[in-house]
Design goal:
The protein is α/β, with parallel strands linked by helices and 314 residues long. 40% of the residues lie in helices and 18% in strands. The protein has 12 helices and 9 strands. It has helices spanning 3-8, 23-31, 51-56, 73-83, 102-112, 146-150, 165-170, 182-190, 219-237, 262-279, 283-296, 301-313, and strands spanning 10-16, 38-44, 63-67, 88-91, 116-126, 132-135, 143-144, 162-164, 195-207. Strands 1, 2, 3, 4, 5, 6, 7, 8 and 9 form a 9-stranded mixed beta sheet that branches. The radius of gyration is 20 Å and the shape is globular.
């Protein structure tokens, strides 16, 4: 690969485990970017469905497939990082989507702002039928977010990030301890390497469905690892070696709860969005949003209650 190509190449990694239902759309959203100097590294993490056969249907030299070890998301991420050849680095999960101008926008911004190590942005949720559900960070403005990290706050998803491959390698990629919550830990560790900017633009579509890792893990498990990521960052900021790097015996609590179904999360998020419009005095939008929830989930009682309440509040 020549030097010019190397200097413009963006590596996108895509961890994939039994992602046959959605991976075709995910891959297409990467290959159809307006920015074409990319490599897509798919980590096929011991899938037992048709994931691999779907990947092989694409006749595109920009795609490479690496066989994963089925030892967790952090290990799959690091395998992709190890093989990445691009100067820029992004992640896309195998059931999610990129907007078509995502990569071009972020490459341009990083080139125009060489004092920054990463740029990130908004994300929205979609369901299994690609229906747009909720736009997160609706009121957020363009801003440096270094101070957010100092108070242990991560305002967006790591899959909205573009950073430098070399910077991720400097921090060792993901840490194997984090079987979930790895994106929180990664953001916080990355923030200690340099400045990070948030652009108030949607860079990612995150799909909510019951077979995603978010909805097959108990919520208490995710909460434990996310809290540990923040505790470790607090320790590092104090100048100490964090608990994970120190090799402390960190055992998650006994997991007693069950995973939360995506339907419940979608309903609650959309109800919240309808009230966002109501509080903004956008009553027509609030009622429209409430009707939309009923249309998607007509047999669920909560959307109907919400609709009636919104109408009466008008």
């Amino acid at each position: 690969m020549d030097d010019d190509k190397m200097n413009s190449l963006v590596s996108v990694i895509m961890p994939a485990k039994n992602a046959g239902k959605f991976i075709k759309q995910s891959i297409e959203s990467i290959l159809n970017q307006s920015y074409q100097d990319i490599e897509l590294i798919v980590i096929n993490d011991k899938s037992t469905d048709d994931t691999l056969s779907i990947i092989k249907q694409f006749d595109d030299e920009r795609i490479s497939v690496i066989e994963g070890n089925s030892t967790g998301i952090s290990d799959a991420f690091n395998l992709g990082l190890k093989h990445a050849q691009g100067v820029f680095f992004c992640r896309c999960d195998a059931d999610d989507l990129y907007p078509s101008d995502r990569i071009a926008s972020q490459v341009k911004w990083l080139r125009d702002n060489p004092d920054y190590i990463a740029v990130c942005g908004k994300y929205a949720t979609i369901d299994k039928k690609n229906r747009h559900l909720v736009q997160y960070l609706r009121d957020a403005q363009d801003q440096n977010i270094d101070d957010e990290f100092k108070i242990l706050k991560t305002i967006t998803h790591f899959c909205t990030f573009m950073t430098y491959t070399s910077t991720l390698r400097n921090i060792g990629g993901c840490r194997a301890f984090f079987v979930t919550g790895e994106d929180i830990d990664l953001q916080l560790r990355l923030s200690m390497e340099g400045k990070i900017f948030f652009l108030a633009k949607n860079f990612y579509y995150y799909r909510l469905h019951n077979i995603s890792i978010t909805h097959t893990q108990p919520s208490s498990k995710r909460e434990f690892y996310e809290a540990m990521a923040r505790k470790c960052h607090q320790q590092r900021q104090a100048g100490d070696k964090d608990s994970v790097d120190s090799g402390e015996n960190l055992t998650p609590p006994e997991i007693g709860d069950t995973a939360r179904k995506s339907e419940n999360k979608i309903i609650n998020q959309m109800i919240s969005q309808s009230w966002y419009w109501h509080k903004s005095n956008e009553h027509k939008k609030a009622i429209y949003e409430a009707f939309r929830i009923v249309k998607i989930f007509p047999t669920s009682l909560l959307p109907w209650k919400n609709l009636l309440t919104i109408i009466m509040k008008k």
